[in-house]
Amino acid sequence: MFCTSLIDVANEFHVPSYLFYTSNAGVLALGFHVQHLYDNNNYHVRESDFEDSEAELVIPGLTRPYPVKCLPHGLASELWLPIYVNHSRRFKEMKGILVNTVAELEPYVLEYLWSGGDTNIIIPQAYSVGPLLHLEHQVDETQVEILQWLDEQPARSVVFLCFGSMGGFSEDQVQELAVALERSGHTFLWSLRRSSPNILNIHPEEFKNLEEVLPKGFLERTQERGKVVGWAPQVAILANQAIGGFVTHCGWNSLLESLWFGVPTAAWPLYAEQKFNAFEMVEELGLAVQIKRYWRGDHLGGVAAVDLVKAEEIERAVRCLMEQDSEVSKRVKEMSKKCHAALMDGGSSRIAMQKFIQDVVKNIALPCSQII
After folding, report:
1. Which pLDDT tens digit goes with each residue over 162-175?
2. FRET partner for 24 with CA separation of 20 to 30 A, picked from 105, 205, 265, 280?
3. What is the pLDDT of residue 196?
């Protein structure tokens, strides 16, 4: 999705270009819409004020207005906006776009993309071929101990907190998280890492001494119902029957994994398109619990300060997340079944892949006949 310059190589060899879009269809539609507004001088979102704006965008394919406050930082950045807009322009040169999503998950936005856009926007055919997941996993001795501990817990009793390879927190935020987990009363598995002062060059690392950053006595008070670890085998953990909820940074792969295993999520976006993912999962689809609606800053952008999320907000979300018979939990379980069915014979994603292959064959045959 960031290698659009390869279209020029494909054109030189008379080969049709297709795009594999690793995020969701909603973000793809958002990018096309922003590009359309930008090219028509109707996009006036600025880096200095977008997080305080009360404006909303009507995004084709979404059923409700999208708050400007929820825009990914890159779509307001003076540096990154022209780059993202140019990628969206070039996406339209593709013969088709494979999206890592499921037709039943994003029906309205996919209908918009399938229609080819409106009268002013021509969009290539979109193929919903997901969920494409890497479910095989290897664990080391430390991680085996984590899974053994989970095996001893009751079904759906553990809340899992994990924030991806780029997710880390300040000591102040760690304190708030710890207080919330202790107050919630729920059993927890917390993958905890330190925020990086230069995240583009140095990934978050584990805290060297947990007792120095966690509230005094926290580890002792929660030792019977909690475990704080470093890097965690996320897929293996989500697959475990003990996991009842997942507090996540809303990376699209993580959200698809949680849906695959029927685990409801609480949204804590940190960077890139994750604010959009949180909006879609919570407000558009009702498949996640809200911690807070608006999130300032971006861990990768490094421009705006990241708000401190208070213990009260986290505790409320954890309690809501772990309600076994909640509407969110019921919808997630139903969507999990649909995700599995999509990859079976006759499923929506299997059919989409077949149509994609047919289109490739057709588009390769044409330039070959012209060359001959």
Report:
1. 999 889 999 999 99
2. 205
3. 80
d(CA 286, CA 360): 36
Q: How far apart are CA 50 and CA 76, in angstroms?
A: 7
Per the CB < 8 A criterion, the answer to whether 243 and 237 are in contact is yes
Structure tokens at 325: 């018979």
pTM for this one?
A: 0.94
Residue with tokens 């509230």: 215
* Angle subtended at Cα 280 by Cα 31 and Cα 64, rounded to the nearest 5 degrees: 85
Which among 130, 134, 132 is positioned nearest to 342, based on CA atoms? 130
- Please tell me the CATH superfamily of domain 6-130+344-371, with its number: Glycogen Phosphorylase B; (3.40.50.2000)
pLDDT of residue 118: 56
Query: pLDDT at position 335, please?
Result: 98
pLDDT digits over 1-12, tens only?
999 999 999 999
- The CA distance from 7 to 145, in Å, is 47
CA-closest candidate to residue 59, choices 24, 93, 94, 86? 24
**Residue that has been written with the tokens 């304190």 in this structure:** 175
Q: Do residues 61 and 111 touch, judged by C-beta distance below 8 A?
A: yes
Identify the residue whose tokens are 């993309």: 113
CA angle 108/109/111 to nearest 5° reads 65
Rounded CA-CA distance 372/369 in Å is: 5
DSSP letters for 51-107: GG---EE--TT-SS-EEGGGS-GGGT-TTTHHHHHHHHHHHTTSSEEEESS-TTTSH
Local structure of 118: helix, strand or coil = coil
Using the predicted structure, report yes or no on whether residue 116 has a pLDDT greater than 70: no
pLDDT tens for 126-136 read 999 999 999 88
Given its phi and psi angles, is residue 109 left (phi above 0), alpha (psi -120 to 50 degrees) or beta? alpha
- 152-189: buried (b, 16+ CB within 10 Å) or exposed (e) per residue? ebeebbbbbbbbbebbbbeeebbbbbbbbbbebebbbb
What is the CATH class of 141-334?
alpha beta
